[in-house]
Design brief:
The protein has 741 residues and is an alpha+beta fold. It is 19% helix and 30% strand. The strands form 9 sheets. Strands 5, 6, 8, 9, 10, 13, 14, 16, 17, 21 and 22 form an 11-stranded antiparallel sheet that branches. The longest helix has 21 residues. It is globular. The structure holds (2R,3S,4R,5S)-2-(hydroxymethyl)piperidine-3,4,5-triol.
Length: 741
């Protein structure tokens, strides 16, 4: 990284700073012309090496024309867009003082730092780097620190912090950071969903106006936007330029895509502040969340791969040997019985399970979901000798022990709620919010409440050999206020939660935390800074999970997706599926079992053991390789694959998610391979072809130990013609480069 002197003083005005950041095929061209607020001149395809003159010319040529009947100065769309620059769309800063002043700050840039060093030259070309812009408006008495980073993976992230530099209060309503997107990219894709059916894709065209995804649930939400994409019309998993953003926040938040009649288009995000939450006393600062941006020149898989690389490069990222987990929830629910649970542990250990998780119901009066929540003391009633006999049994079998908590919640019928009704979030002394799952929210922003919950969890985790917490959060925050003042407290609650997790992790090195929120209601990159897995959904039906896992993986790599094999009949949907379909689906994630093994037949147990052996063999590939997707000619066949970084190994599952209208829905192409390499393609024995295979010319060869040898180019461009697969079934293909290649 270096700062080069400006080679074109004629076109570069004083105080102008331009930075060209490049990484993994992405260019980010940042511009502070004449001390104006920072703007992105380009976010997209790598522009190659530029010098100062190139950057100045690009800035000049891309400056918009002054439009008729608009301000007489070219529109400047900053990362924190402002009214003062003629921007009439969503402003970066929305707020004011009590007398109404300060609603339209005119910020200027006072300093630019590149990886903490002041940028002295007018142009700085570099690789991945961190840029900090200091901005202020002395008259309106606000200052802002705007951070922009280009990561090794090509992901951009940006966030803003606003400080009230005045002598009276300033109330911030919203702080929104944005990234520009070309007008041609007007096809939009984001996610929605509900409990038990998280992350359902929705596509539409972005027309003039704002597509605003607001979340007021106090958690990331089952219906969160997850990722908001804008792409060239028709983009799919491997084709079309795409720009996407993710707001990394676990409380109320926003994602937005905006197309302005002024001739600009942007993606953005930020925290959603409830009324009064953004009130800043003199010298107080509000810091917004990171908003991540991914550019892809070739479809959705590249967006996913960039996020996966980003997460995998973190120092705290999990190892590839993600332990096979058994969670007891769908096996026993609240029926905690030591003998039964020991038996379940024995059966699990015999299968090769490596972690055993005791779910809800071990504490206080919690015999069902109506009472005891918040009392994190082992129940004498069901555990007269404490958890020791079970923990020792589980660890004695060589498995880790995990335990369920729901630290932010309380049943009204609990010792805690009786002792401290003032700790329940409520808008008034004399009224509680509506219950949800018979529970209320505990106000962790009250220091004594935070300390109490911390101490109880800390005591349990210190007393027993607990390697893992399943951290649940089973309701939305409705009227979530500090009861003594009536002031909204979702913002404070979110940061108190982060601090609680961070503290427990620091006190218990190696402790893993799973982010669960009635299934997949808290999946975002900020919760992932302090958790090691998400529970994708309470619905474990493999047909539903084909879709939910596929789209959760648009942001998260497979090792972070809790993915279980449940009983044959789904507890959520009532559908019945083969073990092969359940296991093939679950294999592409952090594998677990959630099934009363005492009810499984000997044949099922033997088959399950084979799947666990397979998972242990392929997890290094699954959790380091590139994630790819595809399918047949219509939407009846879905391909999900992982290709190793050296492209010598690959594993693909092909699932029939519905019956096709076509007798043969066309060949399925195998993406991501080295076109010139010769691969040995084998059907993984635990997932045999359906009986109709008699009509499949390659059936015997592919099932043989030698498999079929084919060039990567043939597999990627011509693929495999499949027999008709039974609806809701899947097959599994394993590829390795043939010996000698
Ligand atoms: C919701 C979770 O998603 C389930 O897996 C289970 O832990 C229950 N809560 C327990 O109450």
């Amino acid at each position: 990284m270096s700062n080069t002197p400006n080679s074109s003083p004629a076109v570069t005005a004083p105080h102008t700073r331009r930075l060209h950041l490049r990484a993994a095929g992405v260019s980010l061209l940042l511009d502070v012309t004449e001390g104006n607020i920072p703007a992105v001149t380009h976010w997209g395809a790598d522009l190659g090496e530029l010098d100062a003159a190139d950057a100045a010319s690009i800035a000049l040529l891309t400056t918009p024309t002054v439009a008729h009947n608009a301000v007489d100065t070219p529109l400047r769309l900053g990362i924190l867009p402002q009214l003062a620059d003629g921007w009439l769309g969503t402003p970066g800063i929305s707020g004011a003082r009590d007398d109404g002043s300060g609603f339209a700050p005119r910020l200027t840039t006072t300093a630019v730092l590149l990886d903490d060093a002041p940028v002295a030259a007018s142009f700085a070309p570099c690789g991945p780097a961190r840029v900090r812009f200091d901005l202020c408006d002395q008259k309106e008495r606000v200052s802002v620190v705007l951070e922009v980073e280009l990561l090794e993976s090509g992901i951009v992230r940006t966030r803003a912090s606003l400080t009230n530099t005045g002598a009276d209060d300033y109330t911030l309503d919203a702080l929104t950071v944005t990234l520009p997107v070309p007008l041609a990219a007007d096809e939009m894709l984001d996610l929605a969903g509900r409990w038990g059916k998280e992350r359902t894709p929705q596509r539409s065209r972005l027309v003039v106006g704002t597509h605003l995804r607001e979340n007021r649930r106090g958690r990331t939400g089952h219906d969160a936007a997850h990722l908001l994409h804008l792409g060239m019309p028709g983009f799919d998993v491997r084709g079309g330029e795409i720009w996407a953003v993710h707001t990394a926040f676990s409380g109320n938040h926003r994602h937005l895509a905006e197309r302005s009649s002024l001739g600009a288009q942007l993606l953005g995000g930020g925290e959603l502040l409830l009324a009064g939450e953004g009130r800043l006393a003199p010298s107080e600062t509000h810091q917004g969340p990171w908003v991540y941006g991914a550019y892809s020149a070739a479809g959705l898989d590249t967006v996913a791969q960039r996020f996966h690389r980003t997460l995998r490069s973190r120092p705290q990222h999990v190892d590839v040997d993600r332990p096979v987990t058994l969670n007891v929830w769908e096996a026993v629910y609240f029926d905690h019985d030591l003998a039964r649970l020991r038996d379940l542990a024995d059966r699990a250990a015999a299968l090769g399970v490596e972690r055993f998780v005791l779910d809800d119901g071990w504490f206080g009066s919690r015999r069902d979901d109506r009472s005891g929540l918040g009392d994190w003391v082992v129940s004498d009633e069901v555990w007269p000798d404490g958890l020791g006999p079970l923990v020792d049994h589980v660890t004695g079998l060589g498995m880790q022990f995990g335990l369920w908590f729901e630290p932010e919640m309380v049943n009204e019928d609990s010792d805690l709620a009786r002792a401290h009704p003032e700790w329940i979030m409520a808008p008034r002394h004399d009224r509680l919010p509506l219950e949800s799952r018979h529970q209320q929210v505990l106000n962790l922003s009250i220091p004594a409440a935070w300390q109490h919950v911390h101490d109880q969890i800390h005591a349990i985790v210190s007393r027993y050999d607990i390697a893992y917490i399943k951290w649940d959060h089973n309701r939305d925050l409705v009227e979530a206020a500090t009861r003594s003042t009536g002031a909204a407290a979702t913002h404070a609650q979110t940061y108190a939660l982060y601090r609680l997790m961070d503290t427990l992790k620091a006190e218990h090195p190696g402790l893993e935390i799973e982010s669960c929120s009635s299934g997949g209601g808290r999946v975002d990159l900020e919760i992932l800074e302090r958790t090691d897995r998400v529970w994708v959904s309470d619905c474990i039906d493999p047909l539903e999970r084909q879709q939910m896992n596929r789209w959760t993986a648009q942001l998260l790599p497979l090792e972070l997706l809790g993915s279980h094999i449940a009983s044959g009949r789904s507890h959520t949907t009532g559908r019945l599926h083969t073990l092969a379909f359940r296991a093939t689906t679950a294999l592409f994630g952090h594998l677990g079992i959630e099934w009363d093994l005492a009810q499984a037949s000997e044949t099922e147990l033997a088959e399950l053991a084979d799947w666990i052996v397979l998972y242990k063999r392929v997890r290094p590939l699954l959790f380091t390789g590139d994630y790819v997707r595809g399918g047949g000619e219509d939407d009846s066949l879905w391909l999900t694959g992982v290709v190793s970084q050296d492209r010598r190994h690959a594993l693909y599952q092909i699932a029939c998610v519905t019956r096709s209208d076509l007798a043969t829905p066309g060949p399925v192409l195998l993406p991501g391979l080295d076109p010139s390499a010769r691969y040995r393609v084998r059907l993984v024995p635990v997932s045999p072809l359906p009986p109709s295979r008699a009509h499949t010319p390659w059936a015997d060869d592919i099932a043989s130990p030698g498999g079929i040898t084919v060039r990567g180019s043939g597999l990627t461009h011509l693929g495999i013609a499949l027999p008709e697969l039974p609806a809701e079934s899947a097959l599994l293909l394993e590829l390795s480069v043939a010996d000698g290649d």
